[in-house]
Amino acid sequence: MSDVNDANIRQLFVMHFNREGNACNTAEDSLYNLTRVQAALYWYTNHLLMKIQKDTQQKVKFVQGDEQQAAKWERMGGAEEFGDNSIVLTSPPGESGMLYLRDSEKYRDVRVSAKLEGNVVGRQTIYLRYDRQKESFVRLLLENNELKLEEKQAGRPLVELSKATLSEIHWKPEDLAYDKATVYSKAQTEAGAAKEDPGYPVNISHTRLREIALSGKRLTVSVDKQV
Q1: How confident is the model at residue 196, as a pLDDT?
Q2: The model's pTM
């Protein structure tokens, strides 16, 4: 059957996109066995651009959005897009994206309220009292449905102060959305999705409301109104 398909494809078309996963095709690739990228519905523009940059190994220009909002932040990694009341931070492949709020080293007592959106499996971090010269900070991590508090003092190793598992996230098989830029094995396809240790598929998304109050040496954190 594949031989008949190949013969008819070559007769009817001058090229054929046959596989998914890579945005780059070179002169050495067969015109009848080209690859393509299928962007998922949840991808933001910079997600697609980051994928194209990775595959082609050529620099691309990312979208930034609101320039007034962008001027308040310094990029330390990744690509950011600013909306009216949102920041979409896209990480480079295998690395972390990071933004630094300008002049925030002057802040001592702070209150932060933010909705963190994205996949359950992964890591999102907010740094408090971050001293870039001394490499000291307190940081809150939302990682694989766990809330972690870590501290780094100048000249000392990183210390985990506390950890708590957040409320269970209920999802249905129809919530799965395959990442078309990923090549799944037969076993993963039959299982329904790629899995990680926490037991959640890698592309199940969820939103958490996090509220942080830092006053002196006292830190209060709530996630979805739970302190």
Answers
A1: 43
A2: 0.78
